[in-house]
Amino acid sequence: MNIRVLLTTSLGILSVAIPTFTGAQNPSTKYGFEINGGIREYGGDRGTRYFFARRPDYQAIGIAFSYNVNPSFDATVYGSSGTLGQRDFSKPRALGFTASITDLVIGLRYKFANNYIMSDQSKIRPYLQAGWGGMQSVSKILHNTDGYAENYQNNRTWFAAQWSAGVGVKFGLTDYLDMSLQSLYNYSFDDNYDGLPFSLSRVRLNALHDAFLYHSIGFTYNFGDNEGIYRFGRDKDEVPKEVIARVNLLSKRILFETASATIIPTSYTDIDSIVEILLDYPTLNALIEGHTDDVGDDAANMTLSQQRADAVKAYLVSKQIEDARLTSKGYGETQPIAKNDTEEGKALNRRVDLKLYYRK
Q: How far is CA 218 from its chain centroid?
């Protein structure tokens, strides 16, 4: 894989994906599982090959698991496995090294789509990532170091600590699927997997250690209901039960025109009562959930439920409730509270729910 292949693949995926953006990871999902693949670029005693200074011939695949801690941070475990190397093809035997490197890192991801810098409903969500972990290298080294036979070959296996830092951006393809582009700098506390400075018995801790960049394209599946995930407080921080009961009752009275996201005028009195509650509790936040019955197309119902949740959010914002305190999410017909085989059951399933929480 080289830069042309990487860019062509990225642009191809984006050209298909961007017109179909329908959602983005938001406070309704707790976990993310990512599979990625890309290229590695070496930097060390043999020179630096970063940012496509040379044709990148070394590939890797990776995985990541993330936990949505709060709007600004994800905890993540990530790693990759693949090849890394540098060869001097002007020599008869291509002096240099090829290594198989596997790394595993525990870290944090800072998300710009956190309702402070960007909306958490944004389809394009950049982030910073950093972590600490370890790596294993299995190197095949060809060199002509003084004191050894010409073209001396050494196979070396080593374990070392490693830190990692980089940037990335996620593109929301659906409510549960993201595509990501990412570049990570990986710095190893090992100065010998590239064969320079050559040593059979020791690691030069005072030398510049070896490192590599990993540029990747990945896909993340988001899953898990994170209701209450932002609330880490003690019992005294619980939302008062009488407030929850009152909002639940009021939200059941929010009605819409048939097959429409237009709120029926008689519902505004009840929504205004919700506004008063949110004004009385300025640190309280709300997840606005839209739901439908099973009449009609599944995809159309998902879109309609999102539009209805968005309509309620827009009205609350128009009444001076800060946008950052509100999140809207449509669930379509996926979470019925009654059977859809009667008109009464369908009516119960055509609803908007408001879930209250404190965001720390």
A: 10
Question: Do the Cβ atoms of 136 and 101 come closer than 8 Å?
Answer: yes
107 neighbors 132 (Cβ within 8 angstroms): yes
pTM for this prediction:
0.60
Residue range 152-182, pLDDT digits in tens: 566 778 888 999 999 999 998 887 889 999 9
What DSSP character marks residue 263? B
Q: What is the DSSP string of 129-188?
A: EEEEEEEEEEEEEEE--TTS-TTEEEEEEEEEEEEEEEEEEEEESSSSEEEEEEEEEEEE
Coil/strand/helix, residue 264 = coil
The answer to whether the beta carbons of residues 208 and 191 sit under 8 Å apart is: yes
Tokens representing residue 307 in the block: 């539009």
- Lookup result for tokens 């080593």: 158
Scan for tokens 């990541």, then name that residue: 64
Q: What count of other Cβ atoms lies within 10 Å of the Cβ of residue 208? A: 11
Encoded tokens for 66: 């993330």
Q: What is the pLDDT of residues 235-265, one digit of tens each?
A: 445 778 888 889 988 988 888 887 888 888 8
Q: Is the pLDDT of residue 80 over 90?
A: yes
Q: Which domains does the chain have, with CATH numbers?
A: 3-223 (2.40.160.20), 235-358 (3.30.1330.60)
Task: Report the C-alpha gap between 86 and 169 in whole angstroms.
Answer: 29
What Å distances lie between residue 141 and 72, 103, 156, 177, 222, CA to CA?
44, 20, 8, 41, 41
The H-assigned helical ranges of the chain are: 3-17, 241-251, 268-280, 298-318, 343-349
Q: Give the SS3 label for residue 315.
A: helix
The distance in angstroms from the start CA to the end CA of the chain is 44
Say what the alpha-carbon torsion angle 48, 51, 53, 59 is, to the nearest 10 degrees. 80
